[in-house]
Write a structure and sequence with these properties.
Blueprint lengths: L21 E3 L2 E3 L3 E3 L16 H9 L6 E7 L16 H16 L4 E6 L17 E2 L8 E5 L5 E5 L4 E2 L5 H17 L4 E6 L4 H6 L14 H4 L1 H14 L4 E5 L13 H13 L5 E5 L3 H5 L6 H13 L4 E4 L4 H9 L5 E4 L1 H5 L3 H6 L26 H4 L14
Helix pairs in contact: 1-2, 3-6, 7-9
The structure holds flavin mononucleotide (FMN).
The site of flavin mononucleotide has 21 residues, from strand 4 and helix 11.
């Protein structure tokens, strides 16, 4: 009698990494298709309060491995765009509760993205018309999106921000800590610290926007000091395994830049590695290449490899990927989870569509920001397209 195990009769299955479960902190994610944070500028006015319409939008997308909320200001000072939601008032916490309850009832998981825009703002958005704050008095190129006197959105040139005094720094950290506590009260599963895309923490990190000579400038340790103070404060509320951090190495969005991004972001990734976080989330520095159908540039690939080597925990990556490239990038070990932005915006059932290789709805950039249900909750699911479920309705009351 042979003691050998019987030979399997069926062919070995080729498992796709995109649909393999993965542990994220204390949670087990059923697959690796996450929803990237997406600003949609549809909070209720006045007060920047999340609404039932916002809850409907998120619940439609609750089959994501993890939903990361749109960037959410932690204070009035942290706001940089008209109509974005906050997490600093009681009403806002109650509004977010609608969202988290709905996502959880549908079996999903949702993190809140904690946001302070720094200089990417305007007195029209600041309390008492004050100046936006920043590490240094350097005016960004470009325009702020404000609400004008007629209640319409309007673009106005950025102005030179006010330099944060060193005595104000604990107050900035407190804003993040309070935002984290409010996110806990609002029923989120965790928080993502927005340290990307040229906003306050990124302004401190990048040498082009930080010319300080005090403890918050100069060396990488100085320029990343605020980020690590924020991480420590937020971990104090949530525990590290419920906290993610988003970075955008080589990023140029919002007029940002660094003279030595490999050293800056390599060092930060290495130090984040010992923080026992749920994940590190990178905005893919090759997004523009991929969007234009080009091969990713070698500097982008090299910095991703560098960060991958320095950061030992779970790595999430977003930008310019589709089903096959996402699977390829996972297989090459460049990331563990892929977050999709524009594809999730236009496809509420994106994980299913990717799994079934179903066609995708195209996103409509004219409805990204502001407005109501149109271009927000009316993108159809596969079931709706096939007539197996009622069509999404556009309710004019939300206009
Ligand atoms: C409409 C829109 C809003 C966005 N809002 C945010 C945001 O609030 N926070 C953030 O970190 N990134 C934001 N991003 C960037 C996305 O999270 C993501 O990195 C980007 O869309 C690239 O991924 P994709 O190619 O899958 O769309 C936004 C992108 C878009 C298109």
């Amino acid at each position: 009698m042979s003691l050998e195990a019987p030979v399997a009769r069926s062919e070995p299955k080729t498992t796709e990494l995109l649909f393999e479960p993965i542990r994220l902190g204390r949670m087990l994610l059923p697959h690796r298709v996450a929803m990237a944070p997406l600003t949609r500028s549809r909070a209720r006015q006045p007060g920047n309060v999340p609404t039932p319409l916002n809850a409907a939008y998120y619940v439609q997308r609750s089959s994501a491995a993890l939903v990361i909320s749109e960037a959410t200001q932690i204070s009035m000072q942290g706001q940089g765009y008209a109509w974005t939601p906050g997490i600093h008032s009681r009403e806002q916490v109650e509004g977010w509760r609608l969202v988290t309850d709905a996502v959880h009832a549908a079996g999903g998981r949702i993190f809140l993205q904690l946001w302070h825009v720094g200089r990417i703002s305007h007195p029209a958005l600041q309390p008492d018309g004050m100046l936006p704050v920043a590490p240094s008095a350097i005016r960004p190129a470009g325009e702020a999106f404000i609400e004008n006197d007629r209640g319409e959105g309007e673009l106005v040139p950025f102005i030179t921000p006010r330099v944060l005094d060193i005595v104000e720094m604990p107050y900035i950290v407190q804003q993040y800590e309070r935002g984290a506590r409010h996110a806990l009260a609002a029923g989120f599963d965790g928080v993502e610290v927005h340290s990307a895309n040229g906003y306050l923490l990124d302004q401190f990190i990048n040498s082009q926007t930080n010319t300080r000579t005090d403890a918050y400038g100069g060396s990488v340790a100085g320029r990343s000091r605020l980020l690590f103070e924020v991480v420590e404060a937020v971990k104090g509320v949530w525990g590290g395994d419920r906290v993610g951090v988003r970075l955008s190495p080589l990023g140029t969005f919002n007029d940002i830049g660094d003279t030595d991004p490999e050293t800056t972001f390599g060092t930060i990734a290495e130090q984040l590695s010992s923080q026992d976080l749920a994940y590190l989330h990178l905005v893919n520095p090759a997004t523009a290449d991929l969007d234009q159908g080009r091969a990713p540039n070698s500097r982008a690939l090299a910095i991703l490899a560098l960060i991958r080597a320095k950061y030992r925990g779970t790595l999430m990556l977003a930008g310019g990927l589709d089903r096959d490239s996402a699977e390829g990038w996972l297989r090459k070990g460049r990331a563990d989870i892929i977050a999709f932005g524009r594809k999730f915006l236009a496809n509420p059932d994106l994980p299913r569509r990717l799994r079934e290789r179903a066609p995708l709805n195209a996103d409509d950039p004219t409805t990204y920001y502001g407005g109501g249900a149109k271009g927000y909750t009316d993108y159809p699911t596969l079931e709706q397209e096939r007539g197996e479920a009622p069509k999404p309705c556009v309710d004019d009351r939300w206009r």
